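Lecture notes, unit on protein representations.

Consider one protein chain, 87 amino acids long.
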Amino acid sequence: MKGALAMDRSRRCIATSKRTRQPCQAPAVTGWRVCRFHGAGGAGPKGERNGAYKHGLHTAEALAERRAVSALLRRARATLAELPDDM
């Protein structure tokens, strides 16, 4: 291909249009399978580096801790349900 740009030779976005059911065909972002319009590189920085950071309620650590507590409660309730009623 004479005179082809790097963009012309790049991988294409694999996203499909909901309306036409045709592939997007925009150039995919390097290291991604989709273009910038379909979500490549859309994540912001984690934690306090993100400008919208307000508190730690939804941090990965807080979510993991709540999941662990919920699992512990489920196991405790299941254990209590297995005990005989005459205790």
